[in-house]
Write a structure and sequence with these properties.
The protein is built from seven helices and two strands; from the N terminus they run ββααααααα. The chain is mainly alpha-helical. Helix 1 crosses helix 2 and helix 5 runs antiparallel to helix 6. Belongs to the universal ribosomal protein uS15 family.
Length: 195
């Protein structure tokens, strides 16, 4: 610090690009009682390809068992999951239908296993993991848009970001053996993967 400049109590401090207000030291209380601890502000991690720092998410109930009013058996739910998978629905779509039409808030709470695990047991799991499938679908859609709108530079840039997310996710799935080691994303044949 420069000579003559010091940070007093309650003066702003700079941490990276975030301004923090330093708390004043706690006043000494009665003997034997400790001062309350100061909680530092939380610094949220940013999104991968966007400015957002949101941490919004759904809150699941603390109780991880099926509700008392729920009267369907686990085997019925497993059969429903398999039936929907045979119709070509993806795990998240199956979960939405079970939640909205059949009153199953959490499949795992009833059956003891998540939807994808139930599908793997019966050999009905999709070939591509769902998040990778949707990224490829988005890339195909943006590429189709660029064919008719060649001057759309922003879409071209977004396509690069989407495809880099595809490559990153594919590396992870190859490492965890959920994709074959020779699987490769090719933009020319990507539309056949999501058809």
């Amino acid at each position: 610090m420069a000579a003559g400049k010091h940070r007093g109590v309650g003066s702003p401090a700079r941490v990276g690009r975030i301004r923090l207000r330093l708390p004043a030291p706690a006043k000494p209380g009665p003997p034997g009682v400790s001062a309350p601890s100061v909680v530092a502000p939380s610094l949220n991690m940013g999104r991968l390809h966007g400015p957002g720092k949101g941490i919004s998410s759904s809150a699941l109930p603390y109780k991880r068992t099926a509700p008392s009013w729920f009267n369907k058996k686990a085997s019925e739910i497993e059969d429903s999951v398999a039936k929907f998978a045979r119709r070509g629905l993806r795990p998240s779509q199956i979960g939405v239908i079970l939640r909205d039409s059949h009153g199953v808030a959490q499949v795992k709470a009833v059956t003891g296993a998540k939807i994808l695990r139930l599908l793997k047991r019966r050999g009905l799991a999709p070939e591509l993991p769902e998040d990778l499938y949707h990224l490829i679908k988005k890339a195909v859609s943006v590429r189709k848009h660029l064919e008719s709108n060649r001057k759309d530079k922003d879409s071209k840039f977004r396509l690069i970001l989407i495809e880099s997310r595809i490559h990153r996710l594919a590396r992870y799935y190859k490492r965890t053996r959920q994709l074959t080691p020779n699987w490769k994303y090719d933009s020319a044949t990507a539309s056949t993967l999501v058809a």
